[in-house]
Amino acid sequence: MALVIESKKACAVNPLKMSQPLGAAYAFMGLASCMPLMHGSQGCTSFGLVLLVRHFKEAIPLQTTAMNETTTVMGGYDNIEKALLNIRQRAKPQLIAICSTGLTETKGDDVDACIVLARKKHPELADTEIVYVSTPDYAGAFQDGWAKAVTRLVTALPARDTPRRAHWVNVLPGSHLTPGDIDELRELIESFGLRPVFVPDVSGSLDGHISGDWLGTTLGGTTLAELGDLGGAAHTLAIGEQMRPAAQALEQCCGVPFTLFDRVTGLTATDALVQRLSELSGRGVPAKLCRQRSQLVDAMLDGHFHFSNIKVALGAEPDLLWAAGMMLHEMGAELSVAVTTTASPLLARLPIGEVVIGDLEDFERLAQATGSDLLMTHSHGRQAATRLGKPLFRLGIPMFDRIGNAHKCYVGYRGTRDFVYEVGNLLIEQIPHHGPGDWPLPAASLEAAAAPPAACPFPAVTGHISMPDARLAAASA
Known about the structure:
Strand content: 5-15%
CATH topology of the largest domain: Rossmann fold
Helix content: 40-55%
CATH architecture of the largest domain: 3-Layer(aba) Sandwich
CATH class of the largest domain: Alpha Beta
Number of domains: 4
Shape: globular
Number of strands: 14
Radius of gyration: 23 Å
Strand order of the largest sheet: 1-12-11-10-13-14
CATH superfamily of the largest domain: Nitrogenase molybdenum iron protein domain
Distance between the termini: 21 Å
Number of helices: 18
């Protein structure tokens, strides 16, 4: 059990976390024909807009109610009304999604009442769906805002009387999953003959594709019709602990049962997902997935020499910290530093003495104190890596000094394999003295390597590929 400690500093130095409203706005960008709207000052929206533009290298639809000193004191109804009318007239979205900021939360604006009044006063808004989520930026962090936005969507928009559809599954992905991750999960789920609906689906809007016509709203993602049909799915798959409240809310309002996966990065984690999909579909595991699994086991066997005894300092949002940290632990690395942004039940289960809810100053200080060999965090950790003379593996949002961030994939068998390769190659390049020649393999490992490979754990598959699990387990011991 890890001890979770919250930093008590008066201010954040080189912040690790991002705000709730930005997380909520990012979730809304995974909806088709949507315009996210921040109820607050122009500066709040501009900062988030620039951050996402630099990360994705794409045009980002994000509007603001542009509150100033006077409107803040007098109340924001007029600004909300004008914003709704202007957005509907100019961008013509099917959905306007409003998230609050610290400014308007401190004032106490009743945004739900403002929406009701605006609809009564302007009947032309009847053709536009409007949702609101409370996300003060003085509490929580990025994944909290995402989680609140998704919870609001799955409670406000699905129809309660939708008939059940066999082989339809809802998928609630956490904010730590990239568009590339979602594409990989979609292909994996569809390989079982299931029809997944992702809420939200940032792979449809932020994957770099180009639309034929310029739109002022999001270019793709989960449609309003799909949101309305969520209650008719046979099952819900929630990815990440942050998605538990949304999955529970959908089950309560529409009766859709759910399965939560705290991560889908790693061998055992992906096995659990594949096994559940096989149960839901009533089909055996496709041979191509057994082949991908075999490739991952081989990659782990090849790479564990370079991971063993490496000390890793990891700074990320809780669900991403958990997924990456547990994968590193499975590869034989030691998680020497864990710094995160907000509370989560997963933190106490990490294989480390303590987890700090803090900033990148804490991250750098602890990495230096523990003699960490590798740093893992987003691009704002590059200064710490330079000062400490340690390699940096960039992970999470923002990554503004790299391209292709939308297509990074570290989930499933193939994504986990790529994670092992990328981190392993960085270790080989930056720590060249660390390799299999540093110590002899124990006799048990040599004997296990010579033994016949173990059978695939999915016996229902015809012509499956065997995988050397026993050799991997013994060599990693």
